Amino acid sequence: MNFDDTLLIAYVDGELPPSRHTEVERAVKASEELAARVANLRASATLPYQAAFAQQPLPPVPDSLARFVANLARDGVAKVHTENIDLSDEVIAEAAPPPAVQGIPPFTGRSARARYSSAWLAAAFIAGAFFCGAALKLGPRVLPFGERVSPWVEAAAGYQELYTRETLSDTLDNPSVDARQLDAIRREDGLPLAIPDLQKAGLTFKRLQRLRFRGKPLVQIVYLPEHGAPVALCVIKNQADDQSAQSRRVYGMDVVTWNKDKLGYALIGQRSDVDLPALARQIAENPDSSLSDDNAGTPAKGRVAATDPRSDVGPGDHTPRT
After folding, report:
1. Burial code of 71-110, b = ≥16 C-beta within 10 A, e = fewer?
2. Quick one: which of 158, 187, 169 has its CA closest to 268?
C-alpha cells in the first residue's frame, strides 16, 4: 500500500473510513519510519501555514489553473480525472496528472488542503506540458531514419510517461463507472470499442479514460503488468489507410502504432517489462477477445475490441468494462 502524506494526514485527522483507519494504524505500529512521519504530521497540526503564505509574494495564478482547482474542490478528484481531458497544445494547461490515491472519501481540513495543494504543484508539470504542446504545433516529430510520429502519439506517450505502479496502486474496481464511460465512448465519441482482455499476457485492466486531442476523442485503456511500469492502449479516429504495427521510442516510452478500420492505435509502455510488439499483434489480430462480466452484465476487465457502433447498449445492460 502507498502511504503518501495525503493518506497519513487523513489518518491523523480522523477522516479515514474505519476499515482504512485500522489498516493504516496497523502499518504505523509496525513501521518506525511511518510512526515518525505520523508524529511529525501531528506536531505540525498547529503551525500557522496560512499566515506564512499570506506574507509570501506570489505571481498571479493563471485563470485556467484557478478554474481547474475550483472544479477539483467542487466535484472531487475522481470526477475531474475521469472527465474528458484534452491533451492538445491548445488546452493542455487544463489537464491534470493522474491521481495517485483513489477510493478515499472527500476530505476536509488539512487532508483536503494537502490533496488540493498537489494540484497547485502540478503547475510545474503543466508549464512543461505547455511548451511540449507548443512544439507539437510544428507538426509530426521527425525521428532518426526519417520516421515520423503523429502529434497525438507524442501527446499520449508524454502523458503515459507520468504513470507509475504507485499511480494505480489504490485504483478501485468500479464496474458501473466503467460501463457508463464505455457507453459514452460509443454513443458520444463514436468509437466502437470494448476493453481488450489481456489477462493471458499477464496484464490486469486498471483504468479507462476519455481524453481529447485537438478536439478529437482519444481513449486511454491502462493495464498493470505483473512487474514494471503500466501499459496503455490509446485509440483515436484516424482516416488513414490500414497500416501494420511499427515500433518506435517516444519520450522515453516504447510505442507500437498501427491503423485499422479507420482507427489509430498506440500501445505504450516499456519493452523491458512487456513484449509490446507481440501484445500489439494479439490486440490487432484478435479484436473479439474483450472483457465481459457474466455476473451483472457490466463490462469486465481485460479487453479492447472493436464492436458494432450500431449496437444499442445502455448503462444498465452493458458490455465490456474498464
Report:
1. bbeeeebbebbbeebbbbbebbbbbbbbbbbbebeebeeb
2. 158
39 vs 223: CA distance, rounded Å: 36
Phi-psi region of 201 (alpha: psi -120 to 50; beta: other; left: phi over 0): alpha
CB count, 10 Å around CB of 35? 13
Q: What is the pTM of this model?
A: 0.51
Over the chain, what is the mean pLDDT? Answer: 73
Whether 200 and 302 have beta carbons less than 8 Å apart is answered as no
Q: Which of 67, 75, 127 is nearest to 97 (CA)?
A: 127
Residue-by-residue DSSP string for 233-290: EEEEE--SPPEEEEEEEETTEEEEEEEETTEEEEEEE-TTTS-HHHHHHHHHH-TT-B
CB 53 within 8 A of CB 84: no
DSSP 85: E
> Rounded to 5 degrees, what angle do the CA atoms 244, 250, 254 make?
65
Instruction: Report which residue type is found at 144.
Output: P
Nearest to 266 by CA among 199, 214, 302, 221: 221
- Cell numbers found for residue 78: 475522481
What is the DSSP code string of 98-164? PPS--S-PPP-HHHHHHHHHHHHHHHHHHHHHHHHHHHHTT-SEEPGGG-EE-HHHHHHHHHHTT--
pLDDT at 173 over 50: yes
Q: Which residues pair with 159 in a beta bridge?
A: none
Helix (H) / strand (E) element for 64: namely helix 63-75
- Beta strand 263-269 with 231-237: parallel, antiparallel or unpaired? antiparallel
pLDDT, one tens digit per residue, over 204-231 is: 999 999 999 999 999 999 999 999 999 9
Q: Which domains does the chain have, with CATH numbers?
A: 5-136 (no CATH), 165-285 (3.30.200.100)
User: CA-to-CA distance for 71 and 15, rounded, in angstroms?
Assistant: 22
